[in-house]
Specification:
binds SN-glycerol-3-phosphate; Carb_kinase_FGGY; glycerol kinase; binds adenosine-5'-diphosphate; ATP-binding; 6-stranded mixed sheet; glycerol metabolism
């Protein structure tokens, strides 16, 4: 192990979907010594849309760093390098001369690009969703950045204008932060790393360069794209005007890949599952790219400097912890997710045969069905909110089992245990349900900050700090506890069959024409109609209702 100065510190900016965080690690330790988190607002201007203000993300970064620097006092001077980890696919376009965003960030789980997807699908033989998979590793889906860029190019006039003037830049959240931190309009570095680039639908997964055929298909000009770099190298220094001025920035990793590194899944055949807003299972396939035939995506796991890229198979689940948020915010089932989810779900012995498929924005892996929508089925007069909360937790576990089944088929060698991390894993009931539903031991990382840890490890590696034994492939270094299955195989399979039935019922929903039910707006509109008109017969009401239908 290389000798590290005992005072050396590494900072990590973790820009997730819900929060931005800055934390600081001492090399060799798995727990951060200081951290600060700021929530990010997500705007939903229309159903299915999901936007964030890029400037709010930046100011959150600044606030978090300022706060941690204050916490550390004089010790802050020992932060010698920074890493960036981020929500992936989220798309930002900005003007390079002014630094101003041209539109809000379109978040990864936004589904406004459904029709863009249909346009691309119409161009490929047999509407084959997997047509470009051998180039970029991904299925055609609104999830990936290229569809969002195309939508912006089509619908945002300011984007069109900037592209014409050649002042438009594209970036995922890592690039936006790096460009601004390193000087913005005054010489900011326009880079991304291979892990983030592999989620855009524009990178050739073999060559690790932007792919001309894909750029042509989407009509995206190459001059808006950042340069693709490795995940661990020195990209530049923090510019004047930002806290930690002059500190080097030495790692960039998409947050799911970062937790793969943090969990030390550095050897072929090792896998981890991270439970946050979404849930993402990554399986390290080494330097070979495995093409899934069962609905998984091929992605870059990491690339350290000039070493060869390491690949992963990924099973992405769009809604995991986000379902708890929905139960709290939209259903009012609880006040505090962290304090109440587990205890409420424990109040019942099982879900009472209730199944909840949280396909709010379609289903990702292994289904890739943008026409699916959420469904709660099996309700009886006996069902309570406790049953539904428990079913929401089980949904996370069943979706993980869907991914595990696909992974076993693709890789041939079944996983024997599941390494997990992420904020949701503090929920011990969820961990036990996962063990019971998947039939394998669930090994929970004790530190929730595995994502940031992986990013710190990569930054350290670029600086020659190998204090975490990053190349040792020794997983036992991650402190953990284990949940063992208590179910029988036949119990597991019976319940899983029922889950599959529920999934079937969720499919195709968005294809059906929206029914003209009474919405709040239409109720108000009808209520404002003069009294006499109420006597119009039911036929008249139906016609009026049809006229006011959002799809008409
Ligand atoms: N004890 C808990 N039980 C179940 N879900 C939880 C619990 N604590 C947090 N969550 C969920 O986990 C997710 C945590 O996400 P977080 O890591 O903060 O952000 P993000 O994934 O958006 O970057 C939230 O969606 C929240 O609903
Ligand atoms: O911010 P998270 O943890 O929800 O992660 C989001 C993923 O990176 C989306 O692909």
């Amino acid at each position: 192990m290389e000798k590290v100065h005992k005072d050396t510190l590494i900072g990590v900016i973790d820009a997730g979907t819900r929060t931005v965080k800055f934390c600081v690690f001492r090399p060799g330790h798995t727990k951060e010594i200081a951290e600060h988190t700021v929530d990010i607002v997500t705007h939903t201007p229309q159903e299915g849309w999901s936007e964030q203000d890029p400037k709010e993300i930046l100011s959150a970064v600044r606030k978090c760093i300022d706060n941690v620097v204050q916490q550390l006092g004089l010790e802050a001077i020992n932060i010698i390098t920074l890493g960036i980890t981020n929500q992936r696919e989220t798309t930002i376009l900005w003007d390079k001369t002014t630094g101003e965003p041209l539109y809000n960030a379109i978040v990864w789980n936004d589904i406004r690009t459904d029709s863009t997807v249909d346009i691309i699908l119409a161009k490929v033989p047999d509407n084959n969703t997997n047509y470009f998979k051998n180039i970029c590793g991904l299925p055609i889906s609104p999830y990936f950045s290229a569809f969002k860029i195309k939508w912006l190019m089509h619908f945002a006039p300011q984007v069109k204008k900037a592209i014409k003037a050649e002042t438009c830049l594209f970036g995922t959240v890592d690039t936006w932060i790096l460009w601004n931190l390193t000087g913005g309009a005054k010489g900011g570095k326009h880079y991304t790393d291979v892990t983030n680039a592999s989620r855009t639908f524009l990178m050739n997964i073999e060559l690790l360069t932007w792919d001309p055929l894909l750029l042509h298909t989407f009509k995206i000009p190459a001059n808006i794209l950042p340069e693709i770099k490795s995940s661990s190298e020195i990209y530049g220094r923090v510019a004047r005007g930002f806290p930690l001025e002059n500190v080097r920035i030495s790692s960039i990793l998409g947050n799911q890949q970062a937790s793969l590194v943090g969990q030390r899944c550095l050897k072929e055949g090792q896998a981890k599952n991270t439970y946050r807003s979404g849930c993402f299972l990554l399986y390290n396939t080494g330097i070979s790219k495995v093409q899934s035939t069962h609905g998984l995506v091929t992605t870059v796991a990491y690339k350290f400097g000039s070493k060869p890229a390491v690949y992963a198979l990924e099973g992405s689940v769009a809604v995991a912890g986000a379902a708890m948020k929905w139960l709290r915010d939209n259903m009012g089932f609880m006040g505090d997710i962290q304090k109440e989810t587990e205890s409420l779900a424990q109040e019942v012995f099982n879900t009472g045969d209730v199944y909840f498929v949280p396909a709010f924005k379609g289903l990702y892996a292994p289904y890739w069905r943008k026409d699916a929508r959420g469904i709660i089925c099996g309700l009886t007069a006996f069902s309570t909110k406790q049953h539904i909360i428990r079913a929401a937790l089980e949904a996370v576990c069943f979706q993980t089992r869907d991914i595990l089944e696909a992974m076993n088929k693709d890789c041939g060698i079944p996983l024997t245990k599941l390494h997990v991390d992420g904020k949701m894993t503090v929920n011990s009931l969820l961990m036990q349900l996962q063990a019971d539903i998947s039939g394998m031991p669930v090994v929970r990382a004790q530190s929730q900050d595995i994502t940031a840890l992986g990013t710190a490890m990569a930054a350290g590696a670029a600086e020659g700090i190998k204090a975490w034994e990053i190349y040792s492939e020794e997983r036992e270094l991650v402190p953990s506890d284990t949940f063992l299955p208590t179910s029988t195989e036949s119990e597991r399979d019976a319940r899983y069959t029922k889950w599959k039935m529920a999934v079937q019922r969720s499919l195709g929903w968005a294809l059906a024409k929206k029914s003209s039910v009474m919405t709040e707006e239409r109720y108000k509109l009808l209520a404002s109609i003069p009294c006499g008109l109420y006597v119009i017969g039911s036929f008249g009401l139906i016609a009026l209702s049809e006229y006011l239908s959002p799809t008409s």
